[in-house]
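Service request form, structural biology core

Requester: graduate student, group of Dr. S.
Request type: structure prediction, single chain
Budget code: on file
Notes: please return the result as structure tokens.

Sequence provided:
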Amino acid sequence: MSNARFHIPDVAGRNYAVFGLARSGMAAAKVLAANGARVWAWDDNTASHGKAVTAGIPLVDLYHCDWAAVSELVFSPGIPHTYPKPHPVAALAKQHDCPIIGDMELLARAGTGARFAGITGTNGKSTTTSLIGHILKQAGISTEVGGNLGTAALDLQPLDGRGVYVLEMSSYQLELTTSLVFDVAILLNITPDHLDRHGGMEGYVASKLRIFDRQGAGQSAIVGIDDELCRGIRDRLGGLKRQRVIPISAVGRAKAGVYAESGKLIDDMEGAALPEMTLADAPRLPGAHNWQNIAAAYAACRALGISAEQIVAGIKSFPGLAHRQELIATIDGIAYINDSKATNADATAKALACYKPIYWILGGRAKETGLDGLEPFYPRIAHAFLIGEAADRFATALQGHVAFTKSGTLAAAVTAAHDMATRETQPGAVVLLSPACASFDQFANFEERGEAFRRAVLALQSPSATAAGGAR
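Core staff response, request fulfilled:
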């Protein structure tokens, strides 16, 4: 073993296939190699081959290898391994009874002694993950934050028993993780998303529930109860009495949990219903959806032994997260908000509920649900600017309800929205990028889309333009 960031037991001298050489795959390949495994790495994108060669990672064509000699396949979570159709490499592994795992599984096997906090749900994962990490760091706890958000699991720094790994867990990652036990596991909410990858809603819910697998006494399951599915999950977990179950809510009381009521955060985890903070004192976390994120983070940090005072201080000092209702600038009294992370209608609803009047930029590659459920927010929309593949579909949905312009590109939409909002001078006006769509028709990811919005906004010519934080 040489320069291993983590010690992964029982891999030395064995063959490990790694498919997908983006950030998580490359990190896994490097750690396995450093632990003495014989790595066979491959990617359908030949541009990634050069990175592997430069890093000293051997390339082996996994379409034409001896699968009988492979101990396990480390698979990129972004590539289908079951639905709607298994990738051919996954199919070959299954044909030869080769286990398929992800990088999170390797981190779990490293046995660092650190505690683990895992966060999943359809919406709010990244904000909640970042907020928990921020609170723990402010409280002086050695903390590493990553997973589906930011840093790949095996690129994180090793921690000892005093540290905490705070990991955003996608449904894809949970499916490829078989032994990780979360000391604190959070399920924020469930609404339809990625259904094609899970064979329908039942499979999607099952993948999310895996975050609670193997929990027992001394561990905590934090469950949002603001949707019917999650209320049922809370009841089911509570009935099993395996771990502590802590409900959270942004819209009503959560007995023995944490909730928002009358603009305050209430801690009822010990049955005392103590008001701990005024939610308006967290300006970077606006709206009821963020109240759920705050409640989840508060409950998680209390379960990890942090005092209420330290948690509240961390919440108040949280700087916010790029691409999640991020204020880019205020120009002539008009706020420009980057909510590029809103890749489905449910996420966009959270932003639309926070502002009025809204010059709304939306579109991209539409999800199955389109704009379903956003109708109650249409009176808040001054004008919509449609971009990307979904423009025609969304124009049909908005016809007769919201005035719209087919702008085509994001840059054109920003210019048009700026011009219209400046002419109309409505008090409280907001130009909001909240696309309700994936970005892949015009951008590599939601981050690239958000940065394009940032550049377009900051390029607007106005002597009274004030930037809010610049690039992050």
